[in-house]
Design goal:
67% helix, two-stranded antiparallel sheet, mainly alpha
Length: 193
């Protein structure tokens, strides 16, 4: 995203939070390319038999954003962090519904990118990853948020530090520790959970 759009996005978020419906209409064309990139990143990790499409994921996130009236938007990075969280929830909900419908059938797999490498396997179960992140959040909410923002949200170290209001070194340290913890957690047998 062009750096020149960052202040405009932040201003539109503030106006939207203040009740200006037209601000949301102006905001969407500015953020749509980045939302599409996020959704594409999520969907590229899905198996070929995935029935949910990138556009459907964006539209579902869009609908949930419209309903998110109680969020106090801090800035552009905060908006994309919330969007990433919504997309994660949508995909996990979809995976759970799909697994429920199959009654224990094949679990949806999500490959982990090179930056996160938490498992030697080419793909991990999205539901297990979500459960592992929830367990990590119970131990260390900030470390779980770092994973969510960087891995799922696609934010860089500086943007993550900005959202969490911590220094860059803290983000890097949390990133390393959280990845190691997830690697250990996901390497356990599913029956041990």
């Amino acid at each position: 995203m062009a750096d020149s759009l960052r202040p405009e996005i932040t201003q539109l978020l503030a106006a939207w939070e203040g009740g200006d419906g037209a601000a949301f209409d102006k905001l969407i064309p500015l953020v749509y390319p980045e939302l599409r990139r996020l959704a594409h990143r999520y969907m590229s990790r899905e198996l070929a038999d995935q029935t949910l499409q990138t556009t459907a994921l964006i539209h579902e996130a869009y609908l949930r954003l419209i309903g998110a009236r109680d969020i106090q938007w801090q800035n552009r990075a905060h908006f994309f962090a919330i969007s990433a969280h919504l997309m994660r929830r949508i995909l996990v909900d979809f995976a759970r519904r799909r697994n429920f419908q199959k009654r224990g059938g094949n679990v949806q797999k999500v490959p982990i990118n090179e930056d996160l490498v938490v498992s030697d396997e080419p793909a991990v179960d999205l539901v297990r990853l979500d459960e592992a992140l929830d367990a990590l959040e119970a131990l260390s909410p900030r470390k779980a948020k770092v994973i969510e923002l960087r891995y799922f949200g696609g934010l860089d170290v500086d943007e993550t530090a900005e959202v969490l209001k911590v220094c860059r070194g803290t983000v890097l340290r949390d990133w390393r520790l959280a990845r190691a913890w997830l690697r250990s957690e996901l390497s356990k047998s599913p029956e041990i959970r």
